[in-house]
Design a protein that fits this description.
globular, six-stranded parallel beta sheet, seven-stranded mixed beta sheet, 2 domains, Quinone Oxidoreductase, Chain A, domain 1
Length: 328
């Protein structure tokens, strides 16, 4: 099979096409013919070697068709999606014509969406759903307010869609007024990000907001904690601003009294307390297909152009989900 391989850790030019043996699935694994997949920021870190000695075939998600399941649970030809389960990190991932994945991380889906549109959903929407309803404990239909810091990212836009459908009033931040209209079209009130964005949020919500989804990361975390009301929640789930260490002193007021703070990352899927089956993937796909979620990819690349897709990801100019479609 053809695979896009990390030849050496470094820049996008280190991604090269090679011929590799197609994987053979063991019991508890499913072989998927890859049809399309999203590009994720984690994969740029894998490529650089920033997260250690990872496998050379990257890709943490894909959609496609079942080629083989030794257990017989999934039938050949079924449409499926898969996310995480060590893909791209400890086992070869989706940057290939075939990938063998853990069966526990495979979602059977029925849809009329084409492969590109379907590929924009699994990782971004599965993670957004987990953060909003799991980490932030949002109750659908109960109302409330949320700040999504880093709203123009694919993850941020997915979170806006999920939060709006759940009945929340959404404030989303962006660093660029040029990107603000995209967020407004999703139903968010938009604020231009700044180091003290919490002051602006507190003018709108003097007592603080119910929830904050922090996607910029360590550089804005302390300010984001100041946005939440007593009894509110803050979930950090992204590092768009980099991963430099943050100095944190609860006694000096860095940790507001009465605010709950937690961290979420999709690599938790499959660990105790985070079963992949908790993500309603079919529901997410159906809502995208019906237009409840505005989930179309921002850019679509061919397989040979994955290095260019990585370059676009690192410019932060994609303005949404980047998807790669495999040749028919």
């Amino acid at each position: 099979m053809k695979a896009m391989v990390i030849e050496n850790f470094g820049g996008p030019e280190q991604l090269v096409v090679k011929e590799l043996p197609a994987p053979t699935p063991g019991y508890g694994e499913v072989l998927i013919r890859v049809r399309a997949f999203g590009i994720n920021r984690a994969e740029t870190y894998f490529r650089k070697g920033a997260w250690g000695d990872v496998v050379r075939v990257s890709g943490i998600e894909c959609v496609g068709e079942v080629a083989q399941d030794p257990s017989g649970v999934f039938k050949p030809g079924e449409t499926v999606a898969t996310i995480m389960g060590g893909m791209g990190c400890t086992r070869n991932g989706s940057y290939a014509e075939y990938t063998s994945v853990l069966s526990t991380h495979v979602f059977r889906v029925t849809t009329t969406l084409d492969w590109a549109d379907l590929a924009a959903i699994p990782e971004s929407y599965g993670t957004a759903w987990s953060c909003i309803f799991g980490s932030l404990k949002v109750v659908p239909g109960a109302g409330g307010s949320i700040v999504i810091r880093g709203g123009t990212s694919a993850f941020g836009q997915a979170a806006i869609n999920v939060a709006r459908e759940a009945g929340l009033s959404v404030i989303a931040s962006t660093r660029s007024e040029d990107k603000a209209q995209t967020l407004r079209s999703l139903g968010a009130e938009v604020l231009i990000d700044s180091p003290d964005l919490s002051k602006t949020v507190r003018k709108l919500y003097p007592d603080g907001v119910d929830s904050v989804l922090e996607l910029v990361g360590n550089s804005t975390l302390l300010d984001s904690l100041k946005m939440a009301r007593v009894g509110g929640r803050v979930c950090m789930a992204g590092f768009l601003g980099g991963g430099a260490p943050v100095s944190f002193d609860p006694l000096s007021g860095d940790m507001p009294i009465g605010v709950d703070f937690n961290f979420y990352a999709s690599f938790a899927l499959g660990t105790p307390g985070f079963p992949p089956s908790a993500i309603p993937m079919q529901q997410l796909v159906d809502r995208a297909a019906s237009g409840v979620y505005q989930a179309k990819p921002a850019r679509i690349f061919e397989f040979a152009d994955i290095p260019e897709a990585h370059r676009l990801m690192e410019t932060n100019e994609a303005n949404g989900k980047i998807v790669v479609v495999m040749p028919s």
